[in-house]
Amino acid sequence: MLRIREAIVVEGRYDKNTLSQLVDTVIIETSGFGIFKDKERLALLRRLAEKRGLIVLTDPDGAGFVIRSHLRGSLPPDRVKHAYVPDIYGKERRKRQGGKEGKLGVEGMRPEVLEAALRRAGATFLDEEGERAAPAGRPITKADFVALGLSGGPGAAEKRRALLQRLGLPEHLSPNAMLEVLNALFTREELDGLLRGPSGGSL
Q1: Within 13 Å and on the Cβ side, how many CA atoms surround 118?
Q2: Which pLDDT value is given to residue 130?
Q3: Which DSSP helix (H) or strand (E) runs through 81?
Q4: pTM beyond 0.85
Q5: Which of 73, 88, 106, 125 is the most buried (most CB within 10 A)?
Q6: Domains of the chain (ranges plus CATH)?
Q7: Distance between CA atoms of 86 and 177, rounded to whole angstroms?
Q8: Rounded to an integer, what is the distance from CA 113 to the centroid of its chain?
Q9: CB-count burial class (<10 Å; 0-12, 13-18, 19+) for 45
Q10: Which residues of the chain have pLDDT under 70?
């Protein structure tokens, strides 16, 4: 598993599934053209870009380039890298027929092709050449979610929604996606501080 500092943005869940078998980092989906109207998700991408950098990895077809162009104009250019996969013609196994342009998307790429694309984009591979992940504190775990009342208890969904709203994060994040995003933005100690905050310890 390759550990990368930057978060990666892809078009859909099948792209994310493929990539998550290769890299250990936060992967956010645009839901295709859904990102055009999703201000919350775009705001999350901006925060991730500022915090750890962002790599845009869309399909090599026309739709992928439209999405890439939209992100290019919406995110801080100095915090965003662009990874490109080559034009390889064929169709993904799960599909009955290929895409309009007959090209494989991110989900159909072999691991070595995806790795090469990320390296060409200048991704920061942790633990290579003395580069290390150096978190300032402890990561947030599922057990922490339970301890904070964010999972497994009465009112957990409401508490998660309240915390997401308080942190300015998309309210529709699933518990797993929320955990992933919180770890990308905060350490456990930082989250404790935010929860204590000026308004006390309650969510």
Answers
A1: 28
A2: 52
A3: strand 80-83
A4: no
A5: 106
A6: 2-121 (3.40.1360.10), 142-196 (no CATH)
A7: 29
A8: 20
A9: buried
A10: 98, 129-136, 197-203
